[in-house]
Amino acid sequence: MTLQHSTTDMDTPPRDATGFARWVEARFAAAPDLAALDLPRDTALPTDLPGYVTRAEDHLRIHRSGFLQDPALWLHHRPRQRTTAGLTDGPDGRAHPLRPTNPEGLVYERAFADAGVTVSFWTVDLDRDLDMFHRWQNDPRVAYFWEEDKSKDALRDFLQDRLSDPHNLSVIGAYDGNPVGYFEIYWAREDRLGAYYDAGPWDRGWHGLIGEKSALGRRRTSAWIRALTHYIFLDCPMTDLVVGEPRVDNAKLLRYADQLAYRKIKEFDFPHKRSALMHCARDDFFSRVAL
Fold it and tell me: To the nearest whole percent, how much of the chain has pLDDT over 90?
């Protein structure tokens, strides 16, 4: 299904790139089932033509699945790029690319109308976030899965270890600017998970917890999973696969898998838990998942 637009004064897109992107976003938001947006061939476009616009003989076309992969509106740092040619030595012979330095501060922000919330992620600041992280980890609901219900000093060491690990990016998730959870985004090739499947050099995985009980709920959970997956794909254009390894008894999380384009590949045993290997492919995510 496509939508034709005439260039009336009310409907003429802005000429600046950001304004044009917001204009496109609003039209897709108003028509959730719209796969592509068609515009007259003579529509005035930004001078720096966005890459998601294609030209046909008698019209311009913008595919939703391509537009949502453009980082301009939602990513708050430059996308990652290759830092060198070739690979560097990794764990157990799993050579991997040399990773760029992690970003700092706000990294992603997007409104999810169906959940009535704006989801954002910012990088962990140890001094600012430690008390909150300690409270979350010592909630029995969180401790059941994370098993990190420890002292503040022990959790400071835990976070410091994560922050100093170049294969990991730790972020705080927020709803409408209010922090609600903690998330770890990791390069699967260098992670313990990399030994349990044929990990690609740019595969990415994540762990997550929602610490605030008031932030729980089906729509909001769907929103943060979509947001986190969206961020991972925007952050690195070479990443074509997002992976996960939740405990097999985490039924509440696993029930979101199919609608969010995560497929269960197999069950396997870590030394400390039995896990489900989950795969989410880039093309499947952007073609099937409602953003």
Answer: 81
